[in-house]
Design a protein that fits this description.
The complex is a heterotrimer. Chain A contains six helices and no strands. In chain A, helix 2 runs parallel beside helix 5 and helix 3 crosses helix 5. The radius of gyration of chain A is 17 Å and the shape is globular. Chain B has one domain: SH3 type barrels (Roll). The longest helix of chain B has 4 residues. The termini of chain B are far apart. The mean pLDDT of chain B is 94. Chain C folds into two domains: 31 residues, no CATH class; 145 residues, Nitrile hydratase alpha /Thiocyanate hydrolase gamma (Nitrile Hydratase, Chain A, Alpha-Beta Complex). In chain C, the strands form two sheets. Chain C has a two-stranded parallel sheet with strand order 1-4. The chains are: A mainly alpha, B mainly beta, C alpha/beta. Chains in contact: A-B, A-C, B-C. At the A-C interface, helix 2, helix 3, helix 5 and helix 6 of A face helix 1, helix 2, helix 7 and helix 8 of C. Strand 4 of chain B pairs parallel with strand 3 of chain C, so a sheet runs across the interface.
């Protein structure tokens, strides 16, 4: 078990030099929502609502466990939400209500 | 009045290091956000190039200071054998990495 | 609270399966930002069009031009971004570009160990393996073993030079022009150039 300070001394996204498996050259076709998420990142950076460096910090702040389990764009959208809350541009309540609305629109009765 | 020294540059305007300078990458462990991977900290290298134009300090930018202070990045050359004592490739093999001025120490 | 159903940009959402948690979050964040007028209703769609227009074919054009036009090659190696802009390739992400020339003495390889920095304006979005741990962890530790996994074997008398792309600069590898291509047109040459060769994990073959 690493000591807690060792977890803080290395960014959770910092992989250089770690032991890892052979490279699997699999590629998946980017899903529509992933492409929208990428475009959102660019637009947020153009307006400096969330710049690229803030996005990286936001991903790192999710912590090593989520970083290792969530996919690339899953990490991005969670980071965007947190940063928008930190900046006072959205609230968790805003997001929860809108997510319920989106779910209902897509025929998911669970809220 | 003498102007013998010419126009003075502001702090951070001119690069502190120049190509071929020997440098060491600082060993620091801040929390928050920075762009220096663990594997190069404390390693010795050489300035290959000064990257122009200057860039905003990404440690400020990461916290929303979009007009943060500017300094130079440098393209630093480090032999892979300096990074990994058991490096298995050719001794010529090397790394190139951009490092911000605040993380470099002269030797 | 705002009513929904108005001014949603014309962005296709999949109809066949209900969106998952993260997709719902993406839709919700985007719609909230538009409702609050932080971003315009058409900006995401416009940026998707920009992303769709960026593919490795652009980088291949740059490489082919450098192979046939020595003066362009010099400008490209001196200032990658400015030379690409000559060919009409804009840098929408405001990054700089260093072009790394492979020669008989040096083989370049590009990685981003901290995230996924990539020359998107000239190559489009990176492949999955470029963003995943095995490549990011090992390219700086055992580049020759990684290259071998791509079928690329570099002689010991050739220097392997790994560029870890961590900040404001992006890298494009200018591969060696393969022998036997002397009579080929610029377009024929561009057709030989692959994305992976411009990352440096493979070479260009004819």
């Amino acid at each position: 078990m690493p000591e807690s300070q060792d977890l803080l001394k290395r960014l959770p996204t910092d992989l250089g030099g770690l032991t890892a498996e052979p490279v699997q050259r699999t590629e998946h076709e980017i899903e529509p929502w992933e492409k929208r998420c990428h475009a959102l990142a660019d637009v947020l950076d153009f307006h400096k609502i969330i710049n690229t460096e803030e996005k990286r910090r936001g991903v790192e702040a999710l912590g090593a466990e989520i970083i290792s389990k969530a996919s690339y764009y899953e990490r991005w959208i969670a980071a965007f939400a947190n940063i928008l809350f930190q900046k006072g541009l959205l609230t968790p309540g805003d997001l929860a209500r809108k997510m319920e609305e989106v779910s209902a629109r897509h025929g998911d009765g669970r809220t | 009045m003498s102007m013998a020294t010419g126009p003075r540059a502001a702090d951070g305007e001119r690069p502190v290091f120049k190509p071929d300078d020997a440098v060491r990458i600082s060993v620091r462990f801040p929390v928050g956000h920075y762009r220096v991977p663990a594997y190069v900290r404390g390693r010795h290298g050489t300035v290959e190039a000064v990257i122009e134009p200057r860039g905003i300090d990404n440690e400020e930018e990461a916290f929303g200071r979009n007009a943060g202070s500017k300094r130079h990045y440098y393209r630093i050359a480090i032999p892979l054998a300096e990074l990994w004592s058991d490096y298995a490739g050719s001794p010529k093999d090397g790394l190139r990495i951009e490092v911000y001025e605040t993380w470099l120490e002269g030797r | 609270m705002q009513p929904h159903g108005h001014e949603h940009p014309d962005i296709p959402e999949p109809e066949d399966k209900p969106p998952g948690y993260y997709e719902i979050m993406e839709i919700a964040v985007r719609e909230l930002l538009i409702e609050k007028k932080l971003i315009g209703p058409d900006e995401i769609r416009r940026q998707i069009e920009v992303l769709d227009s960026r593919t490795p074919a652009l980088g291949a054009r740059v490489v082919a031009r450098a192979w046939i036009d020595p003066a362009f090659r010099v400008r490209l190696l001196r200032n990658g971004r400015a030379a690409c802009e000559e060919l009409g390739i804009s840098f929408y992400d405001d990054t700089q570009l260093i072009v790394l020339e492979n020669t008989a003495a040096v083989h370049n390889l590009v990685v981003c160990t901290l995230c996924s920095c990539y020359p998107r304006p000239v190559l489009g979005l990176p492949p999955d393996w470029y963003k995943l741990k095995p490549y990011r962890a090992r390219a700086v530790r055992e580049p020759r073993a990684v290259l071998a996994e791509f079928g690329t074997f570099i002689s010991d008398d050739v220097e392997v030079r790994v560029s870890d792309s961590t900040a404001m600069v992006r890298y494009l590898v200018l591969p060696q022009r393969p022998p036997g291509t002397e009579g080929m047109s610029e377009q024929q040459l561009a057709d030989l150039v692959t994305r992976d060769a411009m990352i440096g994990v493979t070479t260009v073959r004819h």
